[in-house]
Amino acid sequence: MISRASVPVSEERLLALVDAMAGRRILMLVDLVADRFVTGIPKRISREAPVLILRWSGESLVPGGGANAAVSVRALGGNPRTHGLIGDDASGVELKRALEERGVDTNAIFVRAGYQTPTKTRILAGFPTGIKQQIVRFDREVEARLSAAELERLERGIGESRDARVAILSDYGYGTVAPELVAAARSAVGPEGVVLVDSRFRLAAYRGVDGATPNEEEAETLLGRPLDDAGGDDARAGDEIRRRLDARFLLVTRGSRGMSLFDAQGATRIPVHGTDQVADVTGAGDTVIGTFALALAAGASPLEAALLANYAGGVVVMKMGTATVSPDELRLAIRSDLRPLKEMRWAKS
């Protein structure tokens, strides 16, 4: 393992790429999820059961899942062309409004009558002057199970988005994102384009994409063993996953250990930006793939894009709830912490 401090990636280059992200179009096929947050102030312990009683103090709904990935692209100045499915229920109506309020074009999102939009409801408790802590979450999950007509509609819509050179497929397992649509995304971005996937449960089904951004658990599930079970050498393990996917590169997020980028040259370990004491990891993976895709669209190499995604991920986990990162926050992170550039390490596979 050798240092990659000599690799020509500089602070100035990363800052220039942040500027170049503005206006870049990203084709997005995503599982749209509503993240609902209900907050309360502790009142007392119930006499009926040993449970905490909260006095309701607020409620909000923000884009989650693949919807958060789209919002992350928009927050960094990109232009997400978002394709997906919502229901005609209250969560679907609120989610569509929340996307529009954040500048995301919803024209390619279609509404299915009677469908319940996947919704994750988090109950948070805390005193008025303190940080609200999540105490329980319940999910309303219904798999979409696309009909042939709906699949054709998505395929046709993707085919009309030919002004993007990078595509994101964000598969949370709710049925909107199907491996059969990889070909449509590939055709839309063109032969020089890039197709990225983030799949919670079936990464192996997306063989033939250019790149993937799994977390460590997802990567190890596909591999069938720990990434670094051979004395800490994960280069061969990452290369094996890449070959299984027939992908050019793989970016694995590893929590407090930062990220590992695997490509034809080997493995690059990028140390985490900031501290390993995080506030909330909700939606961090969406920020990572959104930043990674937008950087590639701006002309970054996979390594440069990984570094920017690492900075963005380090910023967003210090925020509570489902959050995004702004260009100014990303610039500040780069300027204030050059350790990821200086201490990244490389090993040949």
Could you explain how this protein is built, in words?
- The chain is of the alpha/beta class.
- The protein has one domain: UDP-N-acetylmuramoyl-L-alanine:D-glutamate ligase, CATH 3.40.1190.20.
- The protein is 33% helix and 28% strand.
- The protein is built from 11 helices and 15 strands.
- It has an 11-stranded mixed sheet with strand order 1-15-14-13-12-11-10-9-2-5-6, with helices on both faces.
- The radius of gyration is 20 Å and the shape is globular.
- The chain starts with a strand and ends with a strand.
Quick recap of the structure?
The chain has 349 residues and is of the alpha/beta class. Helices cover 33% and strands 28% of the residues. The strands form 2 sheets. An 11-stranded mixed beta sheet has the order 1-15-14-13-12-11-10-9-2-5-6, sandwiched between helices. Strands 4-3-7-8 form a 4-stranded mixed beta sheet.
What's the structural blueprint in terms of helices and strands?
Blueprint: E1 2-3, H1 11-20, E2 25-30, E3 32-45, E4 52-65, H2 66-75, E5 79-87, H3 90-101, E6 109-112, E7 119-125, E8 133-140, H4 148-159, E9 166-171, H5 182-189, E10 194-199, E11 211-212, H6 216-223, H7 235-245, E12 249-253, E13 259-263, E14 266-270, H8 284-297, H9 302-316, H10 327-336, H11 339-343, E15 345-347
Parallel strand pairs: 2-5, 2-9, 3-7, 5-6, 9-10, 10-11, 11-12
Antiparallel strand pairs: 1-15, 3-4, 7-8, 12-13, 13-14, 14-15
Helix pairs in contact: 1-10, 2-8, 4-5, 8-9, 9-10
